[in-house]
Design brief:
six-stranded mixed beta sheet, 121 residues, Nuclear Transport Factor 2, Chain: A, alpha+beta, 31% helix
Length: 121
Amino acid sequence: MSASIEIQDCVDRYYASLRASDAGGVRAVFHAHARITGYLPGGLHEMTVEEFAGFVESQQPSPDDAGAERMLDVLSCDVAGDTAGVRLREAYLGMVFVDTFGMLKVDGRWLIYSKLFHVEG
């Protein structure tokens, strides 16, 4: 399987975990030492994977159960060996996020090592 397809699979699993409020799914796509950092309307937010997984899990009902807007577009994917930079746009919690993922291939699996996020508009 090509790196692009494997990366797309990781991104799809990431978004599915958000949509389902699935903390285990979040943990499965992020490297254990990953950081999630960006700006929400209230200012800068910095989280560990565990903090982010807890936040995702706390969204009840889940976006899927609530019938929330579904939108995920991969804007770019640049692969260099076992590293990649991925930019995507997603609808989540009534906002549109632009994310930049730094990704690593570890033990044959692509994982998100860093997530920078920005809320549009």
